[in-house]
Amino acid sequence: MTRVAELLLLLVILTSFLALGTARVSACIRAVALQGLLLGLLPLALYPAGGAHIWGLAVGTVLVKAVVLPRFLNWAIREAAVRREVEPRVGYPMSLLVGVAAVAAAFAISSRLPLPEQAHEMLVPAALATVMLGLFMLTTRSKAVVQVVGYLILENGVYLFGLTHVERVPFLVEVGVLLDVFVAVFIMGIVVFHINREFDSLDSSHLSALSD
Amino acid sequence: MTWSAVAAVVMLFVIAPLVPGIAAKTKARLAGRRGAPVLQLYWDLSRLWRKGAVYSRTTTWVFRVAPVALVATAGAATCLVPLDGARAILSFSGDFVAFAYLLALGRFLLVLAALDTGSSFEGMGASREVTVAAFAEPALFLAFVAVVVASGETSLSGALGAALAGAWPTAAPALAMVAVSLFLVLLAEGSRVPVDDPATHLELTMIHEVMVLDHSGQDLALVLYGSALKLSLFAALLVGVVAPRAALPPLVALPALVAGIVVAAVAIGIVESVTARLRLGRVPQFLTAASALAALGVILLLAGSGT
Amino acid sequence: MTLFFLGVVLLLLGGAAAALLPRRRAADAGFAALAGGGCAAAAAPALWALAGGTVADLRITAAVPGGDWVFGIDPLSAFFLVIVCAVGAASVLYGVPYLATERAHRSVRVAHLLTAIEIAALALVVVARSAMPFLIAWEVMAVLAYFLVVFESERVAVRRAGLIYLIGTHTGTLALIALFAYWGQLAGGLSFAALAAAAPMLPASGALVFTLGLAGFGFKAGLVPLHFWLPGAHGAAPSHVSALMSGVVIKMGIYGLLRLVTLVGPPPVWWGWLVLAVGLASGVLGVLWALAQHDLKRLLAYHSVENIGIILLGLGVGALGARYDAPVVAVLGYAGAALHTLNHALFKSLLFLGAGAVLHATGTREIDRLGGLARRMPFTWTAFLVGSVAIVGLPPLNGFVSEWVVYQALIRSADVSPARAAVFGVAGLALIGALALACFAKVCGAVFLGQPRTSAAEGGREVGYGMLGPMFVLAAACVVIGLVPLVAVAPALRVGALVGGVGTAAVNDGLAAVAPALRRITVLAFALVGSVAGGAWLMRLASRRRTQTSSETWGCGYERPSVRMQYTAASFAAPLLAAYGPSAGVQVTREHGAFHTHPLDLVLDKLVLPLWTRLRNWAISVRPIQQGRLWVYLLYLLGALVALLLYLALQLERVSW
For strand C548-551 and strand C586-591, is the pairing parallel, antiparallel, or unpaired? Predict the structure, then answer.
């Protein structure tokens, strides 16, 4: 099972790169949906002897992250007729290179942190890398929908961190994680909608025009 | 220098023109056509060999030497790869550097030959060719670093040998990423879709074809053969990474190599049928993605080998 | 050592001959003979030291400032002394015919005299074993280089380049003086032996010493971002001076860094990583900015920045290997740095001499005004091609060998657990090599191939043997080291062992690691040359029975091709520069019917000059203090006196309580 878990974690990192390196917004959303599916399968691979609540976590995660959220985002982009990302502040090749550096840093840092024994040795590095990649995407992209995707990747990284504790604290972590996601979705949905209606576009750099 | 190594090199020299033929045949079949025969390049080469040549008055000796240098450097690079799975004809520590730089020498002289003609089309092709190479080289070297780290050997014969076969079970995901990255580099260096379309007729959309526009007769035959040799060389390298054949006896390893190269050629044909050529400004992004994949593989291997 | 000083004296006599002998032919001949002989004499003890012999030190204890003056030749000094003498001799012999046509306008005699003294100063820097003679020779070298750079001082651009060079080099010297003052005070003496003995007492394992050393020697070496003086100075100087500066003077920075590491021991970890990162940045940015240049000599100057980056890559990974007790990595890293220094000196001076020949023949340095010179200047073209293939690092020439050694050090760092990330330097070095290939394809193609773009290029004629001779000797050296690398790698390994402070056992280990590979590289190089030559000959035989016609270049059916339709060098580099975006520093102006690209130096134009402007404006705003009226100055005096008295009063109060 560790081999399967390792493969899943690797694919999670690769889907973050997919979202980072593509210009098409629908491809971004597909990538984060795929990531949600992988994250749903992860608890089953990490704790095969888990029990009912592991299965519940898996099913819930797949439903929310791989089905509901991407549908919601697709509906948002269809309403606003968003097609492509404009050229981001950091170019695509540079984004990929920064991503690689972030992954390298994540691995280097995790090997030095004094952490207890984990379910899988790649869990913490992958979580750290996903968080960094999500943050990077959030800060360097200009379309609001793509920023939401970055936020979702960030949340996925936090979820991965939460997976290190699943065995010990049964319900608290799941509920916390899912609630977090719901809150994020609602806030982001409202914000996105309002941006669209007030400014007739989804380019969030227009928001900065409010300050002066 | 074992007989199997020499036989493998000779065999690669002989079957090199098959690779573009198989790729073209696959592409044609997938499109519902019958396509040209698989041996087409052989007929083309023999036809070109019998022809005379036209030389531009602007060109110098560089123009005549470049096709010879292309084939010579590709041939010398072939002698560095362990084609029979065990040992190459010439192998030493750090020979992957020699491999890449030998091919770069051939490319350098071919680019100079293109600029020698003083034609704007060839200058354009030369400019694009060096741009593609500048982004492909780091990806190639990262793939080499990955196999060196995975196997613990610093020469190609060691890195693609038994140690790599032992590393595959534990490091499969990383090595798979490296193999994909190598395949993308093969597409770039072999001038295939999605980097360059070998079947286009419009000069402004070409990279490699337009660079060799002015060569004719036997020079053109050498250029076409050299490109095919480079392509099959990269395919052999890919087969070496994916399926190290060190444990097999030579009589089994050589046919396995041929089978692997055929599979790679079919894969090229499938990719050419399924994807479109990239806009030229997107090629650096494509090759950076290949580098990123290989770099991720290296990170995983380094993290796995020590702390 | 007496032979060495004899050589220095001969050099100075040669300079005097150039300045004093009345007749031009005698002056030139005397200068060339004496200076050339001096270089040979000075190099002899160096070769002896590299072959394994020992050379006695020379100590001057008379009343000289700064304690005893010690001179000696150890393998590190010997290696660099060989570089100084070889490139110095080539530059001297080339400079005589090169400047012969300038006699009417400028003072050529003074230039020759200064060149001779400059080479003597460079030699003294390398053999100095005490801080005082080192700094004195360093300053003499730096200031004389300024005078040589502003040879064409009637041009504003040249004067400006000289001024920026002077600022850069003096900032570096300031750091060096601070370094030796601090260190010497700690050690209680200024000889290198005393400084080395005091090294264990340095706080934070020598952090301040290494930082000042990197700044001071880095200014001289030209690493990014301390390189801003380099393109201007090397572009403005006469070509043989540019060859001397690019080939030797900037290497003094590398010598300084290597000597620092030899004296103090393994550098701190952060310094190793810093040097590695700076080397990578210098390499990539140097070649990227070179791609954007339109001026041939500025382009070659930026390539010097790139090669310094490669040398620093070797130095950095060697430092990491030394710190983490991996002697093979340390020896290979330092040896790679030293070897690339030698090779770069050889092929860079070759390229500058070739550029000088082009400038001499056509009168222009603009790449986009040249073209078609391969037919008109075939010997210069051959030498330049050898230099280009060498600098790109392609087999079978010497650039490949030194890059191979650096690759060896980088790839072996994967075994050194804390330094594993250095392995990514391999990808960086590959990128640098590929970009260098693009740049030199552009240069060779636009300058020598195709058809002449202007009448200046059409009028180019081959230069005389006086200028071709040194070029061919340098090219031959490149070929020899490329074909038989063991000749140069063995001394480089000895230097690496000395710098890394490892014993002969490590040298033998390093040699055992690379010697079989070097033998096979020799086989590969000969096989390559043989197969290309043999193949070309076979093609000639095979094509004898085929018809060969000549015609115009195929223009895809276009009826009236013109020379201006050739691809320009700027267009050749454009896709690559566009892929890198703003970091390439290219300014594009589009007007109606015109398109200009102008290469900026990002450090000079975006950092140093705005900083300078801000400083100057602040200084101007402080000017009103100087009123020019006497009573205001008396008021200042009175105010200072009152303040002092008040301070004294307060202090006394405190003391008495």
Answer: unpaired
Q: What is the DSSP letter of B193?
A: T
Alpha-helical runs (H) found in chain B: 3-15, 18-30, 40-49, 61-78, 95-116, 120-151, 156-159, 162-167, 172-189, 208-211, 217-242, 250-274, 283-305
Q: Where are the domains of chain B?
A: 3-305
CA distance readout (Å), A126 to A102, A117, A154, A180, B256: 10, 15, 12, 20, 37
Between A91, A93, A104, which is nearest C421 by CB?
A104
Confidence at residue C52, expressed as pLDDT on a 0 to 100 scale = 75
Region C16-31: mean pLDDT is 84
pTM for the whole structure: 0.90
CB contact under 8 A, C523 and B90: yes
DSSP lists the bridge partners of residue B54 as C549
CB contact under 8 A, B104 and C433: yes
Q: And the tokens for B208?
A: 């490699």
Q: From the CA of A108, how many Å to the nearest CA of chain C?
A: 9
For the segment A79-105, the average pLDDT, to the nearest whole number, is 80
Whether residue C655 lies within 8 A of chain A, CB to CB, comes out as no
Mean pLDDT score across all residues of chain B: 91
Which pLDDT band, with edges at 50, 70 and 90, does C406 fall under?
very high
Domain boundaries of chain C, sorted by first residue: 275-512, 569-599, 606-656
State the average pLDDT over residues B62-85: 92
pLDDT at B259: 94
Which pLDDT tens digit goes with each residue over C566-612?
A: 888 988 999 999 888 888 888 888 888 888 888 888 888 888 889 99
C196: number of Cβ within 10 Å: 14
From chain C, the residues in CB contact with A100 under 8 A are none
Instruction: For residue C580, give how far its alpha carbon lies from the nearest alpha carbon of chain A (Å).
Output: 9
C2: Cα within 13 Å, side-chain hemisphere: 0
Q: pLDDT band at residue B307, thresholds of 50, 70 and 90?
A: very low
Residue of C nearest to A91 (CA): C581
Query: Closest to C581 (Cβ–Cβ): which among A91, A104, A108?
Result: A91
Say whether residue C582 is in contact with chain A using an 8 A CB cutoff: no
CA-CA distance, C608 to C611, in Å (whole number)?
A: 5
Say if the Cβ atoms of A111 and B285 lie within 8 Å: no
CA distance C655 to C657: 5
| Nearest beta carbon to residue B173 from set A6, A17, A99 | A6
pLDDT at B133 over 90: yes
pLDDT tens for C501-528 read 877 776 777 777 788 888 899 999 999 9
B193 min Cα distance to partner chain C (Å):
19
- Cα angle C229-C234-C235, degrees, rounded to a multiple of 5: 105
How far are the Cα atoms of A24, C364, C436, C583 from residue C303, in angstroms, in the given order?
Answer: 39, 20, 8, 17
Contact B142, C434 (CB under 8 A): no
Cβ distance of C407 and B97 shorter than 8 Å: yes
Compare CB distances from C532 to B51, B65, B121 and report the shortest one's residue: B65
Instruction: For residue B42, give both structure tokens.
Output: 């052989």
| Chains touching C, CB cut-off 8 Å, 3+ pairs | A, B
**Which tens digits make up the pLDDT trace of A110-122?**
888 877 777 678 8
**Where in chain A are the domains?**
2-210
Q: How far apart are CA A39 and CA A53, in angstroms?
A: 15
Q: Range with the lowest mean pLDDT among C115-124, C285-294, C336-345, C561-570? A: C561-570
**Residue of chain C with shortest Cα separation from A112:** C418
Residue C18: what pLDDT? 85
Which of A100, A124, A128 to mutate: most B Cβ within 10 Å?
Answer: A100
The residue of chain A nearest to residue B170, with distances taken between CA atoms, is A3
Structure tokens at C433: 């090599």
Q: Which helix (H) or strand (E) holds C517?
A: helix C504-542
